[in-house]
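Example record used in the benchmark description.
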Amino acid sequence: MAHPIPHAGPLTLTVNGASRTIEGASPDTPLLYILRNDFELNGPKYGCGLGQCGACAVIVDGQPTRSCVVPASVAIGREVTTLEGLGTPTALHPVQRAFIDEQAAQCGYCLNGMIMSAKALLDRNPYPDDDAIRDALRYNLCRCGTHFEIVKAVRRAADYLRAERAHESER
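Model output (structure tokens):
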């Protein structure tokens, strides 16, 4: 028996705080394809296509999510954050700034997933130890071997975020 073809129609998602609609999209289309091809957000990368490397990670309602294996319909009514939603080239998010300061990149392909997973971790745990950091990043693959620098970058990002919070509470 043939499976029915999912209805292709308008698909509205909230991405980086803005409501965005794409016409003619199948709800089964991987979220990664909608983000990159339709919304032109190139932070999430196509890595393995199997949800195993983490290059495609985005944050959906606070949880790191592998956008290559999640249908776009899963994101309907939820907040999706991509790398582009964290900061700008002139106003980096503390996690982005920490990765630069620690030189936690070589080729940079894994960085999207590392940064998004680190942000999700620090949002729920502002005081992670190295074990918590490694656990949060365990499903993100880095072929270049910058794992030590990445852990240091997450520690530094935690420091930056705590300093920002302390500064805001003084106001």
